[in-house]
Amino acid sequence: MDVLGYKYSIRYSDELKDDDVPDGILFGKCETSKWQIDINSAYDRINQETALVHEVIEAINSHAGLELNHQTICILEATIYNMIKQLESNEDTQGQC
Ligand SMILES: [Zn+2]
After folding, report:
1. Cα-to-centroid distance, 70 and ligand 1 (Å)
2. Residue 51 belongs to what domain range?
3. At 13, is the secondary structure helix, strand, or coil?
4. Ligand 1 centroid from CA 54, angstroms
5. Rounded to whole angstroms, what are the CA distances from 31 to 43, 90, 94?
6. Which of 31, 39, 59, 92 is such that its CA lies 20 to 30 A from the CA of 3?
7. Using CA atoms, how far apart are residues 46 and 65, in angstroms rounded to an integer?
8. What total number of domains does the chain contain?
């Protein structure tokens, strides 16, 4: 996946761990120095998709030096995810008209 010209690879793992979140739920992880996004495949599809949107925003935030706080990233994640789903459902209904 291309993020601002950086070729990110997306990995899915059901054993995703983060030293910063020892007991917390980790849906995804972004390593901007390695151009690597990890998604926790132990969770359902919606969580995997929102995690991917979230981690891409984290990558943009880092590479573009936006300095967005985490709450802003979470709001963008939810809004952009809903927009993608809306566009997908529009595509579905257009074919049925
Ligand atoms: Zn985050």
Report:
1. 6
2. 2-93
3. strand
4. 6
5. 20, 34, 38
6. 92
7. 28
8. 1
